[in-house]
Amino acid sequence: MEAQQLPQNYEKKIDSLIGTEFGNQNDPGGVFLVAKNGKPIYRKAFGKANLELAVNMTPENVFQIGSMTKQFTAVAILLLEQQGKLNVHDPVSKYIKDYPGGDKITIHHLLTHTSGIKDFTRMKSLSSIAQKEMKPEEMVSFFKNEPVDFTPGEKFDYNNSGYVVLGYIIELISGDTYENFIQKNIFDQAGMSDSYYASDRKVIHKRAYGYHKKEKGFVNKTVISFSVPFSSGSLMSTVDDMLKWQQALNQNKIVNPDESQKAFQKYKLNNNEEFTYGYGWHLKEINGVPDREHGGSVFGFKSMGVYIPKEDIYVIGFSNCDCHSPTEITRNIAKITQTSLKK
């Protein structure tokens, strides 16, 4: 599908849709990309990447992607399974010997948010460690002795702690840091040269700065130590790199089809009830067509990605203020793109 086959008003439609939320050029903004068959058909930036320096956003800006990090963690686990180093049905206790109830919680439970482990983001004591440099082991120790919310496999309840445990398991098995493992096995393989494990100290070329909105206007984002969200939310990327990621998955560059299929299928709870999450992706529908989607939210940033396999449509949206959400806009862009390309 070449760009010229798009209806003439397609770009205008998308512009005005995004403009409802991201229309003020003097506010923090965002970047949106739409691809069909791996080729961008829409790619635009809105607002400012840095308010203090009055720098305009460009499509090349680097954003924190928050919980979209979970896709990378899940695929890293599947890669270790492909290498014969683990099985998704292994109990957590096989790798973390002293994990409370770890003989009943499997890697599969962690991947699908069905473990029942206490989500550290809901713990009141989180503020006591938010700015501390935490080792993965220390992060796991922070929540592992909390009472569980339910028996493993009993229900689906979105959970950041489970993905922190997965990151720690990746380190224990690979003998490498999570950051290095993702860099070598995913970013480098997919050609994602503008993706990083987040840092506020490193000089990151084309970084978009993150903001909160207060009554009196915008303020710089609250500082957290990225070792806290760790493998549940600490990666940074660009829309172009995220398209490369989607392409790498489609072309089985990282894991083989048998493994990647595990990420994109729905699973059942103990009572046989199906839920709409695979490994690192929500599995929903757009206009009745199955999709894979996930958002992210971390201080100062929001992200959302939607992929429709049947039509090979990928839409990704980033925002550098947690006051602007790209979630519904990204889904609506996917809907418009579907109908526009059918005509």
From TrEMBL:
- Source organism superkingdom: Bacteria
Q: Which residues form the Beta-lactamase-related domain?
A: 24-323
Q: Does the keyword Transferase apply?
A: no
Q: Which UniProt keywords apply?
A: Hydrolase
Which segments cross the bilayer? none
What is the originating organism of this protein?
Chryseobacterium phosphatilyticum
Entry annotated with the keyword Hydrolase: yes
Q: Could you give a GO molecular-function term held by this entry?
A: hydrolase activity
Instruction: Check the record and name the SUPFAM superfamilies matching this protein.
Output: beta-lactamase/transpeptidase-like
Fetch the InterPro entries from UniProt: AmpC-like (IPR050491), Beta-lactam-related (IPR001466), Beta-lactam/transpept-like (IPR012338)
Its recorded name reads Serine hydrolase
